[in-house]
Amino acid sequence: MDVTQIESDAYDAVAELVAAANLSSHQILVVGGSTSEVAGKRIGTHSSVEIAQAIIQGVNRVQRQVGFHVAYQCCEHLNRALAVEQATLDHFDLEQVSAVPIIGAGGALAATAFKIFSQPVLVEHIVAHAGIDIGDALIGMHLKHVAVPVRLKVKEIGFAHVTAARTRPKLIGGERAVYTLSESGDSC
Fold it and tell me: What is the mean pLDDT of residues 87-104?
């Protein structure tokens, strides 16, 4: 695998998503992925730290530019918990759980992020503002309501299918509801 291309594709995909979602330093991007799928294998069968590092480097390049928080989703063996920095846990008042992701229980992406983070912790649940799913790892459970698909130019990273979403506030009300101040027309 060309890890330079994987890093570049991850960067491009995340940069496009962050722009579409208008992600800020007070928001979370969840990243789920299967390094096995990126390598062209079945999810969970050929984990690769090298591929995980390339994806994380691409994400980190965008994160340094924008300042959003990032959470890496573990695999099903850790109930899709998330590796985050202690600062993210503190900022969003998240609840820490006790486990350390490893390749065999957590997956290469979360395990590698956990090793790279300066103060890694694991949380069971977040409500992210946007997310990218590399290899159909199923990140939807960690996105705010309402998730809106973002069609990226990067359709695959390696051999893995890429799906992305941003979120928006729920639209409430009925036929009289107005959703922007400029539409209101009220002078009061």
Answer: 96
Answer yes or no: are the C-beta atoms of 52 and 109 closer than 8 Å: yes
Q: What pLDDT shows up at residue 186?
A: 61
Domains of the chain: 3-184 (3.40.50.10360)
pLDDT band at 181 (very low <50, low <70, confident <90, very high): confident
